[in-house]
Amino acid sequence: MLGLKLLTDPRWANIAESNLEEILTDHAWCEQKAASNAISLITQNSEHEDLVHELTAIAIEEMEHFKMVIDIIKERGYELGRERKDDYVGQLMKFAKKDGSRNQAFIDRLLFAAMIEARSCERFRVLSKNIQDQDLAKFYHDLMVSEANHYTTFLNFAKKYSKDVDVDKRWKEWLEFEGNLIQSYGKKEQIHG
C-alpha cells in the first residue's frame, strides 16, 4: 500500500527495544515535529479550507501522540531527553523542490509529509510485530493505523491541489529517492535512524 522501495529489516526492532528510553524520546519528538509541520502547512496555505480543517485535526492528533509517548516515558521511570536531530528528515527536506512555482513547493511539502508518514507507519508496523513488550506492540499497532491515514491525507491533498505538478510522477521520484536514502538507516534506536 505504501509503495516503499525498501522495507525495514525486522531486526531493527531489536535495536530499538534494547534502548526503550532512547527510542521513546526520539519518537516523542517525531510526533511534536509532525504537529509543527501540519501547523506550518496550515499557516502557509490557509486559503484551502478543507486542508486547514484536516491538518488541524492531524496536528491535534500528533500532539495527543506526543502526550501518549511522554506518558509512557514517565510511567516507565524514563526521562524525556532533549530533541534529537533527524538526519533522515533533513535529507528528505533537501530533496524537496523549493525553486519552482509556489504550487510546486506546496505540493512537494505535502509529498515530503506523506513520505515521512509512510516511513513512520512502516517502522511502527515493524515494532508492533517484532518487539517483545506486548503493551508497546499494541501501542505501535494503533499508531501505525493513524500514520497510514495521515499518509493518505497528505497524498490526496497533493493530488487535489496540484496545478502544475504530475503528482504520480513526482511521488515515484520521492519513493526512489527515499528507497536509496533509507539504505543508510535502520541501525539506531531512532524512528527513522
Automatic annotation (TrEMBL):
This protein's name: tRNA-(Ms[2]io[6]A)-hydroxylase
Cross-referenced PANTHER family: TRNA 2-(METHYLSULFANYL)-N(6)-ISOPENTENYLADENOSINE(37) HYDROXYLASE, TRNA-(MS[2]IO[6]A)-HYDROXYLASE
Top-rank taxon: Bacteria
Organism expressing this protein natively: Sphingobacterium daejeonense
Name of one Pfam family that matches: MiaE
